[in-house]
Design a protein that fits this description.
Radius of gyration: 15 Å
Protein name: Glyoxalase
Organism: Thalassobacillus devorans
Strand content: 25-35%
Shape: globular
Largest sheet: 4 strands, mixed
Number of domains: 1
Pfam families: Glyoxalase (PF00903)
Number of helices: 3
Structural class: alpha/beta
Strand order of the largest sheet: 1-4-3-2
CATH superfamily: 2,3-Dihydroxybiphenyl 1,2-Dioxygenase, domain 1
Length: about 120
C-alpha cells in the first residue's frame, strides 16, 4: 500500500436546524471547548465547530434529525472527577460506567440527545 491513515481530523455530530446557540452553550460554555470559525461557504449550512484537544468536534445541521443513541464520540479528558463535579453543578446528567479496564468513564447526552462518552485512562 502506498497510503496510510494518520488520525482523525474531526468528528461530526448531527443536530436539528437552529441548533447553534444550544451547541455554543453546551459545548462552549459548559464543557469549555473553544469555538472555531467556519469557512464562509460552510457557514451557510448552519452548525458550529469546536476544538477538542488536537482535534475538532463539528455540530452539523441534519434535516429530519434523529439523535445517535449508540454511535458516539469518545472524548479523553484529564481529571474526570473535576469534570463530573462540574457537570453536576451545571445540572448535566451523566452515567458512570466501569466496564472498560484501566479507564474511568461516563456517558451523557448533548442537548440534542446524541450519546457522548468521556473517559480518562488510569495508570
Amino acid at each position: 500500500m502506498t497510503y496510510q491513515f494518520e488520525g482523525i481530523d474531526h468528528i461530526q455530530l448531527a443536530a436539528p436546524a437552529n441548533c447553534e446557540e444550544q451547541a455554543r452553550k453546551f459545548f462552549g460554555e459548559i464543557l469549555g471547548m473553544q469555538e472555531l470559525e467556519k469557512p464562509p461557504e460552510l457557514k451557510k449550512r448552519g452548525g458550529v465547530w469546536f476544538s477538542c484537544g488536537n482535534h475538532q468536534l463539528h455540530i452539523g445541521v441534519e434535516n429530519n434529525f434523529h439523535p445517535a443513541k449508540k454511535a458516539h464520540p469518545a472524548l479523553v479528558v484529564k481529571d474526570i472527577k473535576h469534570l463530573m463535579n462540574h457537570l453536576t453543578d451545571q445540572n448535566v446528567p451523566y452515567q458512570e460506567d466501569d466496564n472498560l479496564p484501566n479507564a474511568r468513564r461516563l456517558y451523557m447526552e448533548d442537548p440534542f440527545g446524541n450519546r457522548i462518552e468521556i473517559l480518562e485512562w488510569q495508570s
